[in-house]
Model the fold of this input.
Amino acid sequence: PTLIASETEQFEIGKQKAKVCMTCHGADGISTQEPYPNLRGQKMGYLISSLKDYQTRERTSGLAVLMQQQADALSDQDIRDIAYFYSQLGNESQP
Amino acid sequence: PTLIASETEQFEIGKQKAKVCMTCHGADGISTQEPYPNLRGQKMGYLISSLKDYQTRERTSGLAVLMQQQADALSDQDIRDIAYFYSQLGNESQP
Done:
């Protein structure tokens, strides 16, 4: 039970931090526009490295500029929390 | 019926071209490793621009080098076919 409570807590923390992401990537992690990726159930490791690639300017195309600005505002902890949230979104064990 | 046949045909063409992608991104579009993204049901527009970003070296981090090599081998038509396949994968209307 402790473990489950902690996971739910982590999920909620990530959800709060992901509010700004939802504008483009959807409240349910299914994006609202073709150019933007769905993030629902995406691999956590991939989400973390993608956000870091925006921070370090290793993703640089037109639309990447928008994500660079978003990623710059995030700490390493924010990135982990948001990545955890999206990786778990759609997982049946989550509310 | 003609439209449905054509969509199924497109799906199969993309599926054949995507065989090499499946090694890392999974036969069902759910990747086999944390650093690799799931592609199942991903937005077609995003998949196309991502592959083009690898071709034009607008994605350059460590793991991107592997994808640059893969993307270099693809024509614009290949990219569209593969993107269509993954965008439709998991869609109930597909076999």
User: Anything to note?
Assistant: Residues 45 and 95 of chain A are 22 Å apart (CA to CA).
